[in-house]
User: What shape does this take?
Amino acid sequence: MRGNRKLAAVLPALLAVLLATALAGCAGGGAAAGSSTLTVFAAASLKSSFTELAERFEAENPGTTVTFSFAGSADLATQLNQGAPADVFASADAGTMAKVQEAGLVDGEPRDFATNTLAIAVPPGNPAGIRSFADLAKAGIKLVACAPQVPCGAAAARVADSTGTVLSPVSEENSVTDVLGKVISGEADAGLVYVTDVRSAGGRVESIPFPEAGAAVNPYPAAVLAGSSNKAAAGRFLDLLAGPEGQEILAAAGFGPGSK
Assistant: This one.
């Protein structure tokens, strides 16, 4: 009888512990089930604005974390073609996006959410005296540009062709941020980058705009990827890019509007 009384005394406490443990397990499982990651492959020139957009997106989509891979669009397309997992691809030109589409990696139609235009970046004070696009072809000018397969390099080639200017870069880089870095470090007299890159660099470089850049304005398309495991969130991210909040952030970075 004494043993039964002892069991009766401890049984409620034991049941309470078991119930609390079970509830904690359910709560933990619910949190895990409600969380997700959105992986975005984006052109290097989008890093600053997309990082800010991710903060907005995460605030509006509790439980979703946005992770990025920023690089040259051509490099990102190669990674996707080789099977790299991602939910969204944002390219710095339509041609690179078309290659990803042709490989069957895009779900639906890409959306042009922004445009960008080339500018000449020079070190503070412009020691080489660059005043125009034609000056980039002068003897002794150390010009750095993007490689031809990179969107900013393709845009530079279009401007050169349209003006009959022969450019001879001392270095061709795989991303526009690498070009900018060479100018900032003083390794180049000038670099062909985007207007947005000059703005993001602050006072570390000066911008030399040139009217011929209008011949090579790059649209920026974004798309949900066919292999995405989170297509609903990917679609919402594209909606944010095209919506008022996204357009405001992109415009502040120097991007022009896309067709949405």
